[in-house]
Amino acid sequence: MMDNDKPEECNVCYNNYDEELRRPRNLPCGHAFCTQCIEDTINNVQLTCPSCRAEHSATAATQFPISYGMEAFMKKFTSMQVTSVGAVSAEPGQDHTRGIGKKLQSRVQEQKNSISYLISKCEEVLSQLGKYQQQVRDWKTQHHQLQDRLNDLMEQNKAAIELLEQEDTSVVNMTTEGEAGKKQVQTILECLDTVNTVQEVVSTIVEADQYDVEGEDWIQKCQALFPDVNTVCTSVKVHETIKKALDMITKTGATTVPVLEDSGSTIMAKVERITNEIPLKKLTVDHLRGMSESIKRLVEAGLVFGVQQDKEDLRYSKITSQNGEVHLHALQHQPLPTHTIQVTEVMEALESSSTLVFLDLAWPGSPRRRLHIQLNTDTMLAKQFVLLCTGQHQSGSSYLNTKLLWLGNKGVSGEHVLGGDYQNNNGEGGAPLLTHQYGYQYRKSGNAGAVGSWYDPWSSKSTQFFIITRDRTDDGQWVNIFGRVVRGLDVLRAAVNHSDITEVTVVDCGVVLTL
Hints:
By secondary structure, this protein is of the alpha+beta class. The protein has helices at 35-41, 68-89, 102-194, 198-225, 229-252, 267-277, 285-290, 293-300, 343-350, 380-390, 489-496, and strands spanning 24-26, 32-34, 46-48, 55-57, 281-282, 304-310, 313-322, 325-329, 339-342, 354-363, 366-376, 404-408, 416-419, 443-445, 450-452, 465-468, 478-487, 505-513. Strands 5, 6, 7, 8, 9, 10, 11, 12, 13, 14, 15, 16, 17 and 18 form a 14-stranded mixed sheet that branches. Strand 12 and strand 13 form a beta hairpin.
């Protein structure tokens, strides 16, 4: 237990609470800590209380309410301290306190402290305004640059229109010339039908030969002049460039303004939050591999998601970071997130025959807790296990929200739990997601932590799995072993002690990315 003899200070950093970065906030378990320490303690979407070790879900300290009672106590405590200090420091002969009562002196000191604090806050806000002003000016410069580029684009569009106008005029002129030539040729054709004398025949034929030459010249001129390559290329390029820009604006639509509920955040902190929430950004595996500071902040804030399109069905999976590991959670139907990456691209980047997956378990009276399983993915049962951890299969099936089904050999050798019925959640389902192929080599084991299946890969229950929680002492071994628990076996052992094993539920699952 932490020392609570000094309620005016945070039990983590031992600094006094204040009205800025260290405002006291209440956790759901009832304990209070300063905002900064809560923010520093948050790991992904979970926060462990430093006092009672209860785990709470949060992405930011601002999700917990401010302890106004503690702040009121602090003000009264400060007032009492000021009164006490004033009484001790008062010395005989000080003319400036003559005739002023202790209570009034305390009020004066309290007012001085309040004004000093106000000045400090003003200086901080002025500093924030200076930074924000610089950011606004940077944005203005960027917009002016964009405007210049847009003006260049409009000039290109204007030039394309002028070229098209010239081309249109040329086509009209050639068409007029061609129509006139056509009429003349038709007239000659009619004359040839009505000639009566040798002289008329010779004259008409000579004239027809002349028009024939002129017609051929006109056709060759059309072939040579049209289309004008420069006009067509300029038109197509400018049109496609502008169309793509306009399509992007149309798809983006009206900007949704984020709701900033925490008035205690600094100006620049709110600016960063807004700029992170508004744009829809498509990321790649390289972004996760590089993990720049900005991408790291997005992942830690829970703003990065994997996306998978199955026919007309679009699903998303959280991507989080814990203890330096990046986790891809099970795909679900969720609102359109801010930053996305193709799930298939992430899974292809694993390129490993040994995959680390995770299951988050929870049951009444216990917060969610995580276990990690190393899978031997050169087996079909393990490949299937990965699909059900990520929800990658086109059916959308996953271990998410399934429960443990049965506890065997409780408290003795070979104790084990059974789960994985994604279909019925009662032990009657668990049909395979992959077509069975022979030739896979499965291990045998009787050791605690081994993960396997009672059923053959082609069985109607092949997705059900067991995990051994106590070593077998009879030297016996179970078959169809395709993985082992590498972290969190204590979580399963704690679940075994719960009164009803069927109340233990997989509340989250996924795969650890080895990028």
